[in-house]
């Protein structure tokens, strides 16, 4: 019978710890954004590496563009 009392005390104390952690998380805004995690997978956020050959323009290329 003593083990039953010990188990009840342990389970209530663990539940109290989780409740305190939940309340602290809710006050800090942990659970405010509930829409973006579901939509985040649909967004295209790939990093596109620039081709250095395309970004470098020679002065002669710039002159040709200005004349047109």
UniProtKB/TrEMBL annotation:
<keyword id="KW-0472">Membrane</keyword>
<feature type="transmembrane region" description="Helical">
    <location>
        <begin position="6"/>
        <end position="26"/>
    </location>
</feature>
<keyword id="KW-0812">Transmembrane</keyword>
<dbReference type="InterPro" id="IPR004714">
    <property type="entry name" value="Cyt_oxidase_maturation_cbb3"/>
</dbReference>
<dbReference type="Pfam" id="PF03597">
    <property type="entry name" value="FixS"/>
</dbReference>
<protein>
    <submittedName>
        <fullName>Cytochrome oxidase maturation protein, cbb3-type</fullName>
    </submittedName>
</protein>
<keyword id="KW-1133">Transmembrane helix</keyword>
